[in-house]
Design goal:
The protein is 30% helix and 22% strand. By secondary structure, the chain is α/β, with parallel strands linked by helices. The chain has two domains: 100 residues, Response regulator (Rossmann fold, 3-Layer(aba) Sandwich); 96 residues, Orthogonal Bundle (Arc Repressor Mutant, subunit A), CATH 1.10.10. Strands 2-1-3-4-5 form a five-stranded parallel β-sheet, sandwiched between helices. It has a four-stranded antiparallel β-sheet with strand order 6-7-8-9, with no helix packed on it. Strands 10-12-11 form a three-stranded antiparallel β-sheet. The longest helix has 13 residues. The model has no long low-confidence stretch (mean pLDDT 84).
Amino acid sequence: MAAIRKVRISAPDDSLIRALSEHRTARDGWRIAPLDGSPEADGLVILDLDNPDESAVSVAALRAGGYAGPVLILGGLPQEGEPDDEAIARPVRLGTLLARMDAHWAQTPDIAPAQLGPYEFVFADPVLRHTENGAPIRLTELERKLLAYLIDAKGGLVDRAQLLLRVWGYSAGVDTHTVETHIWRLRQKIETDDPRTRFLMTEAGGYRLILNA
C-alpha cells in the first residue's frame, strides 16, 4: 500500500486547498488540509501568507512546535539555517507548486552506503558520520537527496538542470538559485581544514563527487 502524502496548508482562504485537491486527490493517497495545530513529521507544510514579512515568524512557530519537515513558502523568504525551507516567488504557478509537492515524495536512487572523504553516507541515516571519531553532521532531506543523486552518478558530472529536475521537480527554465544555495549550505557543514572533506566539486556546467576507492 502506498504511503499517505500529507500536505498541510496555511492560507487566507481555502482556494489553494481546493485547487491542489483537484489535482492530487484523496483517492490517490493525498491528504491536503488546513494547517491546524502541529503538522505530521512525515508531511509537508505550505505557507501562503498575505504578508511576506510573516514568513520567518510563521516558520519559527512551526519549529518551536516540534515540526522539523520541509516548508514551502509562497512569496516569502525561508527561515535562515533551514535548508529544507523553500521560498517560491510570486506569481506562483500551480504547475510549479504541484511539481515541488511531487518532488518531495519522489523516489530516490537505491544508494548503497558510500565513503565520502572521511565520512560515511547512508541515505536512511539523517546524519553524515565521521568514520574515525563518529562525529555526526545533521543532513536535511534535500541534502541527503542531493548527495544520493551525485553518488548515483559514480563520480560523473551532474548538471544543475538535472539536479533541479530530479531533486526539486523544477524544469530547467525556472530562474532559481536553489541548487547553488543548497550546495553552499552543504559545504558549510562538511568542509573543514582537512583536505579530505573537499570532495564536493563545482565544475563548469554542474557538480561532481570525488568518491573514495
